[in-house]
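FAQ: What does the model actually see?

It sees only this:
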Amino acid sequence: MGSKYKLGYADSYLVHCGNAAERRLTLNSEQMADLSRQYISSLSILVVTLFIGVPIWWKTTEVYRCPLPYNEIEKLRNMHVSRWIMSRWIIVSRCNACVISVGTH
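And it is asked to produce this:
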């Protein structure tokens, strides 16, 4: 009937009928089962990635934002803060003989 050319996928052939006006791919039932398994595998990997992988990635890479006490922060604005620090000042003049202690608090 027509000449057969090997395609390279398993044992499928491209069949030229007549003067090459009609071309068709012939697959046996085992090859069809292989193709359907490939489509199902690809689809299941895509579904698992989208519905399980992406949400887990999203949750594990988000930045934790703890709630801030805005009322207490606002109170700090109006609060007068004073702190006494104990210090001793010593002034040394150019002549090393005179050291003056200014004061302690």
